Amino acid sequence: MSASPCGVENAAIVASYRCKVAEHYWVNQRYKYIRLEADAPIARITKAGQFYQLKCPTTLEHEPFLLRPMSVYGAGPEDNRIEFLYNVTGVGTKAMATLLEGGHMDIVGPLGNTFTFSANYRRILVVARGVGLATMAPLIKEASQAGVDITAVMSARSPADLMEKEFLRGATADVRSVFDADGTSSVEAMEVLLRELIEQQRPDAVYTCGSHRLLMLLQRVLSDYPRITAEVAMEQRMACGMGVCLSCVRLFDCDGDRKFLRVCREGPVFPIREVVGEVEFG
């Protein structure tokens, strides 16, 4: 299931899994890593770009009502292993942060589609900020295993927030780091950098996640390079995660016909050139 044309619904084998919390720890002051062991071999059916709905626990301070959508950070090598990297920021994730190793969590998925990727690519360019690095980490792994060269433009507030090691997870890449703290992550500076990289390296595909500002910038830059595959894994608030509640619809340009599509069902991966609108989603 790769990024689909406008209006094409993705079929997925979706189930609920009871998982044991095998590992759970702070990566830095904002992000936590959690490794779950499911009661079934889910790693083989989970693809880069997909997500799960997680049932966060109820605590004395936090009572999350809805399941929380979370992109897959890693799956395998064990058949029942799945990993998430998340920003502890709201009611659900604050409650989730209290889970102890040895405890349990229920998850539903895998949901959504995956990135378009070919082992015949020579090089890919990934542009990530914030939680976007967790979403694209499985794609980095796939490209590395296929011997495809990787260029990673990583944007963060400061060097302390970058998490380069967590993003690459041992993969070799040409990393370009930009920060809010020194102004190198500004739209103007990023546009110069991205145009230089594309001109010099001629990537076969460009991927992004985690920032609406970067999405709009890439859409503008890539209009000059129509042959490059360009995709975004969209971050959007969701309720059901299965396309029923329509809370995650976004506007897309489908061959000149504008349509509202569900990020959870027709996405979350979409062609960058089809995204319409200036509404912030991450």
UniProtKB/TrEMBL annotation:
Keywords: 2Fe-2S, Electron transport, FAD, Flavoprotein, Iron, Iron-sulfur, Metal-binding, Transport. Its cofactor is [2Fe-2S] cluster. InterPro entries: Cyt_c3_hydrogenase_gsu (IPR012165), Dihydroorotate_DH_ele_sf (IPR037117), Dihydroorotate_DH_Fe-S-bd (IPR019480), FAD-bd_FR_type (IPR017927), FNR_nucleotide-bd (IPR039261), PyrK_electron_transfer (IPR050353), Riboflavin_synthase-like_b-brl (IPR017938). Residues 14-117 form the FAD-binding FR-type domain. SUPFAM superfamilies: Ferredoxin reductase-like, C-terminal NADP-linked domain, Riboflavin synthase domain-like. It comes from the Bacteria. Gene3D superfamilies: Dihydroorotate dehydrogenase, electron transfer subunit, Nucleotide-binding domain of ferredoxin-NADP reductase (FNR) module, Translation factors. Belongs to the PyrK family. This is Dihydroorotate dehydrogenase electron transfer subunit. It comes from Paraburkholderia dipogonis.
